[in-house]
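User: Structure with adenosine-5'-triphosphate, tokens only please.
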Amino acid sequence: MKEKKENAISIEDLAIFCKKKGFVYPSGEIYGGLAGFWDFGPLGVELSNNLKKEWWKFNVYQREDLVGIDGSIITSPKVWEASGHVENFVDVAVVCKKCGYKSKIDKHEIGITSCEKCGGEYEVKGEFNPMFITEVGPIKGDSIKAYLRPETAQLIFANFKYVQDNARMKLPFGIAQIGKAFRNEVSPREFLFRTREFEQMEIEYFIEPKQKCPYLKEIGTKEIFILDKKMQDSNEGSKKIKIIDALKKKIIKKDWHAYWISKYFEWFDLMGADLNKFRIRQHLSKEKSHYSEDTWDIEYNFPMGYRELMGFADRGDFDLKQHQEYSKKNMELSLDDGKKILPHVVCEPSLGVGRALLVFLLDAYHYDEKRKNVVLKLSPKLSPIKTAIFPIVKKPEFEIIAQKIFDDLKKEWNVVYDKSGSIGRRYARNDEIGTPYCITIDGDSLENKDITIRDRDTTKQIRVKVSELKNVLRELINSEIEFEKAGELVK
Ligand code: ATP
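Assistant:
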């Protein structure tokens, strides 16, 4: 891989970097791999777990109106009949007549869309259902045809009544789920962007029909890039506007959309993403599902251009109605006045873990000219390793203190103890994988019972008493204190 001299990295080079450092490997690569499948290495599994944990904390623990579930990957095939996936989940496989590029398009795009690579004409290769089929039951004749789930959402709907009852939820409330989904994509590509096995983090937020969003005060005043239908039709390009103003001007029609979009901007911001690379795009009428009045995506400016990072679909009462009809189980809820209603989901935020990981990795990747190495500026909340502990030299008096600190910190975080190589080399190794803080035990530590903490992004150092170290680290990782105020700055 060519060393990048600037901060932008291509998606291919990011995949090479991730493999080299142990974030993500092509799955089964020793046998040539399998397109659309990836394995997470020691750093990747930590990063992905941290991402999911932070999403869960923000959306489930920090809210009283949301609870979680974890549905099964294979379920009754009737779920997929009711949801419409068996009949209507259709992609169209196309191949470019000019450059041979394989892709999938939606039905409405047949004859309209041209090759995204060279602009050539597409030849339609047929329609297909991207659900993976499997058999449940090992005895031939006894087994039934089932599917690997193509989205996590449906098990939220299928379990809706149980969850509402068990968790004693009152409208409006949401159910969240993180889990694997599978789609037999025509042409998986662009690293984690389009894969055949991926994870989704989804929320179904149920309201009374026409219920207003009571949380509009929480929508911040930050401006974001918006690309609505009109701007797309007139090729105007996106405009920067406050979400609340977009709602007031009816660019965003539904208050729940404005609210949830703002919550996701807040979360991505907290996690350290560069919001200037984000925009929201309204679906054109032909892109929307028949039951949707309005759908928005958050798009991110990936190295290959603006692409969907996540969607905010309006599903109305479609799914509960379908499950009610197919299962013959009542999905209605009784309101306080005794009236029975079928709740609506006007906004379903659905985010892929892989696409979110790409965003955080792309935004974090920096080549530092002075240091002559990569510095991965991940938010400490997401960093796979929270701190690396170094005795300045390999001598028992330093190693004993370092080992003791390591033993204590590893009870709470994923930390490493590193005593090999020069201090500079040890810093560089950790900068490259995004470790936010390195702790050094030096000569002064023996006398003063303190250590230095070095900040990855600025290389500034502070001295902190060993007895206060854990608290200081906790505050730093949670962004509760500025680095320079967390100890005595080393001049
Ligand atoms: P696309 O148009 O890119 O195929 P979609 O609109 O079909 O995506 P949804 O069904 O809305 O996607 O799924 C919600 C989210 O799940 C997407 O925004 C994306 O983050 C993630 N996702 C969907 N398909 C894939 C995939 N094949 N690989 C990785 N992530 C995916």
